UniProtKB/TrEMBL annotation:
The modification N6-(pyridoxal phosphate)lysine is found at K58. The keyword Hydrolase applies. The active site is at S85 (nucleophile). It comes from Pseudoteredinibacter isoporae. This is 1-aminocyclopropane-1-carboxylate deaminase. The keyword Amino-acid biosynthesis does not apply. Belongs to the ACC deaminase/D-cysteine desulfhydrase family. GO terms for molecular function: 1-aminocyclopropane-1-carboxylate deaminase activity; D-cysteine desulfhydrase activity. The lineage of its organism: Bacteria, Pseudomonadati, Pseudomonadota, Gammaproteobacteria, Cellvibrionales. Keywords: Hydrolase, Pyridoxal phosphate. Its cofactor is pyridoxal 5'-phosphate. It comes from the Bacteria. InterPro entries: ACCD_DCysDesulf (IPR027278), TrpB-like_PALP_sf (IPR036052). Its EC number is 3.5.99.7.
């Protein structure tokens, strides 16, 4: 079984090329301005359209895993996800395009007909293995991965969500492209946090390069909207700690591979804030309050969002920027003093998951 956990295991030249390619993809995605109130609104950045089959942030997160897979053209990939996983969906679509095999280990035992997402996975050629929730919890244990390798033969392991340092490295392209936009505040939905870490590290790269050239960087603040309840117990890993950890690890990778000095301080220019309170009951929960917001927002602005991630982030953005128009949404737990007229909203994709909520 092949485990690749760091971009440093990949050839420097290929890594640079891939990041450059991803940056150009991010730059090329259209954004459109949405007026929420007179002279207040958001720029909706359509990263969901970056690729017709692997939507949004998964396109960026999976790029390095695919680069690593090129070294082992004969091996299948194996990864993990839930029954409506955007990650597995994107991975299966790319596997089909690249004529590679994918083993999709899906959480929960299953009976009866496949749901539309799983049916798509199968039609795209993935081999699906359903495992109990207990087994699924062992998805990161070497012992369990070895058991799977005995069953399936050798494979390239892509961790659940395609995250970690490999995933976050690709997401840096989003931060690099965002740094070129003339908007201070950026809104992003957060699951595992690897996209957020990548965006911050990408903003760091742009900032450090400017400082090293003697230019004044533009100020950026990333507003993170967690869709999963944050762990508060001291012994539990918190997504915010994970973001900090990956961001600093990436700084070391970028120093080594891109020659961007990690010691150049960016804290005056690149900041982030956690905007909690928009989980709407927790991961995958879609209470009536959120459903009402989503349908009214979508019909008013002709935008399509996904219930798990982008709808929750959009609820935060609307409350943030045009509070008086959205009194039914949760209150903002923290609000910085500056008056914000404009936000850059990252549409991270996930639209196939709407089917899990009976939305088309
Ligand atoms: C997976 C996903 C996210 C969360 O990304 P993380 O890197 O896990 O934080 C956000 N939005 C969409 C649409 C996703 O599919």
């Amino acid at each position: 079984m092949i485990n690749i956990s760091s971009p440093l295991e990949l050839p420097a030249l290929r890594l640079n090329d891939r990041l450059e390619h991803l940056l150009n993809q991010a730059r090329a995605q259209e954004s459109r301005f949405i007026d929420l109130a007179p002279s207040r609104g958001l720029e909706l950045w359509h990263l969901d359209k970056v690729c017709s089959y692997a939507s949004g942030n998964k396109f960026f997160k999976q790029a390095l895993y695919w680069l690593a897979a090129e070294t082992h053209p004969e091996l299948p990939l194996l990864s993990f996800g839930g029954a409506y996983s955007n990650h597995l969906y994107a991975l299966a679509a790319e596997a089909q395009r690249k004529k590679r095999n994918l083993i999709a280990v899906v959480r929960g035992l299953h009976e009866g007909p496949l749901n539309p997402c799983l049916r798509d996975l199968e039609n795209m050629g993935a081999s699906i293995q359903f495992v109990s929730r207990q087994d699924y919890r062992r998805k990161d244990d070497q012992d369990y991965l070895n058991e799977l390798a005995q069953q399936w033969g050798p494979f390239i392991h892509v961790p659940e969500g395609g995250g970690g340092l490999m995933g976050a490295f690709g997401a840096q392209a989003i931060g690099l492209a965002a740094a070129e936009k003339d908007i201070e505040n950026i809104v992003l939905a957060v699951g595992t946090g690897s996209t957020a870490a990548g965006v911050l590290a990408g903003l760091d790269i742009a900032c450090r390069r400017q400082l090293l050239q003697g230019c004044r960087p533009s100020f950026k603040r990333l507003l993170l909207v967690p869709v999963i309840k944050l762990q508060r117990q001291p012994d539990q890993k918190n997504v915010l700690d994970e973001i900090q950890y990956l961001r600093s690890q990436l700084a070391d990778v970028n120093a080594e591979r891109l020659g961007v000095d990690a010691n150049v301080e960016t804290s005056d220019w690149v900041q982030w804030e956690c905007c909690e309170g928009f989980q709407f009951g927790g991961y995958g929960k879609f209470p009536p309050q959120l459903a009402r917001f989503l349908s009214s927002f979508e019909s008013k602005f002709s935008v399509t969002l996904d219930p798990v991630y982008t709808a929750k982030a959009m609820a935060m953005a609307c409350r943030f920027i045009a509070e008086e128009h959205y009194p039914d949404l949760p209150e903002l737990s923290s609000r910085n003093s500056a008056q914000h007229q404009r936000l850059l909203f990252i549409h991270s994709g996930g639209l196939q998951g709407r089917r899990g909520f009976g939305l088309l």
